[in-house]
Design goal:
This protein is α+β, with helices and mostly antiparallel strands. Among the domains are: 237-374, Ubiquitin-like (UB roll) (Roll), CATH 3.10.20; 377-607, no CATH class. Helices cover 33% and strands 31% of the residues. A four-stranded antiparallel β-sheet has the order 22-30-29-23. Strands 31, 32, 35 and 36 form a four-stranded antiparallel β-sheet that branches. α1 packs across α4 and α2 crosses α3.
Amino acid sequence: MSEESDHQASEHASDASREQRRRGARPAARRFRLLESKPAVAGVVLAVVLVLVVAVDAIASAGRIHPGVRVDGIAVGGQTVEEAASTIAQNAGAVLGRSVVLQAAGEEWTISAQEVGGSIDATGLAQAAFRVGRSEDLFRAFSERVLAWFGAESVPLRVRLDDAALDGLLDAIDAAVGRPPQDATVQVVGTEARLVPAKDGTGVDREAARESIARALAGEQRTVVLSLVPLRAAIQDDDARGALDAAAKALSGPLTVRYEKASWKIEPHQIAAWLAFRPKDADGQGRPVLECYLASEEVSRTLTPIVGSVGKVAKDASFKVVRGTVTIVPSEDGLALDAEAFATMALQTLTGSGERVVDLPMRRVEPQITTSEAQKMGIKERISTYTTDYSPSNKPRVNNIHLLADALDGTLIPPGGVFSFNETIGPRTAEKGYQEANAIVNGKLVPQLGGGVCQVGTTIFNTVFFSGLPVVERHNHSLYISHYPKGRDATVSWGGPDFKFRNDTEHWILIATSYTSSTVTISLYGTDPGYEVSYTTSDFFDLRDYPVREVKDPTLPVGTRIIEEKGVKGRSVIVKRVVKKGGVVVRTDTFKSVYRPAEEVVRVGTKVVSSTPSTSTTTGP
């Protein structure tokens, strides 16, 4: 073979070899790439599997808590949130009944959850249980569900504490083992101001205590050791020096108070009573400093008597009744010291560097009842009136009747309001001018302060009776008294029976009184409601004989009988009142009076009197 032929053959062989290698290499590279992609594929497959597992499990427990989930050992798996909340609430008693021991500085306190306002949010815990296995993180959701399947997924219990109750407990512990800090302050002794230094204290670490107690009540721990921490006084010495300087300046001399042409000098010892101290925010950031100020109450107590001559007491509008006609007496504004304005002005003057003189600020004082308000009360005409009489010879009794009438005069009753005799008059005391006079006590006439009060009580009852207004409370006397209207008497006593009536009109009612030495008149004024009153009085019934008590009298001859107190038979009577308006019955009242018998007291003579004079002869020895 020629050299050229060999060369050509060699080239063909080489080309064939290269083609063979090229064709054989492609399957090997493809296999390598497939091997490289297997982990990624496995991850995708695993993710798909997790999604499918979680999805299937989620579908199986749709709307319900995943099986196996517990709340502090309480099984709630497979339940809806509402069902789980009910289950948790039913078991909450055992949790809230737990107690823990608190220890601090060698002292111990045993408390229960109830004592610190412990409560359990059953719905919140049920919702937390429902969220188990429902995380957006698929791996977390899967792991939570797997743990739940094996009973290892539990929502921790949380006990909520009442802040006020817990603070009260910690306050008590602080009082026992702590030492409260004392802010720096200023003390005024005589006319000298002194700094009282601050003192730091110790107390329970409240934030740590709150967390530890809540955790212990929710878990198995039964002892909580409370740590005491230093408590720094809020106001330190430097924070009080400004108030000290202000107080010292205020006490450095007298103060002159002027009003028009009058003036008064206030001495340092009087100013000292005005000085007071309080914390205030120094920088708006909550850092307190001590502030010196003048207490307006003390200022008023000192100055009101001094400047009384330039002031004026406000007068309420009142009502004047003359011969059955009522008119309004206009109100008058008052003029009084403006203590708060004075305190501000005086402090600036006392702590400044100028003249120590202050012009007295005054303010207008409006009466409680102005003329305009009185005009709106609707008190314009007489609704009813009644008069009773009495003996003018019993001076103490007459005195008491007049005092009582004066106390009632001008009384105002608002629409819907209830008048009470006892609440309006108050106790009948010697300090008010009441004297002793006969009154019925326990069925007997005995001297008593305020005797005669029932004369006024009976009079106002009859005034109300004929007004048609509703009677709320009325009591008859225990004994029948003939000079009062039959069955229409009324007894009152401080701390005992009362007389009350209601103003059922749409306007105010005024009680007006007048009297003479032998009569007392009580009238009601307002806007006449138009009531028509009629009544009937029964005959006496249930008559009962009175007992007779004999009292031996050695000063009377045998056989002599003198009636000292006349007996009165017991009896009953009924008065019926019918109140109409426009011909229609508004109310019907029945007033039944039951009177007990009054015993008769008879003095019986026991003195023996001889019918012939006796003589005696005396002979000597």
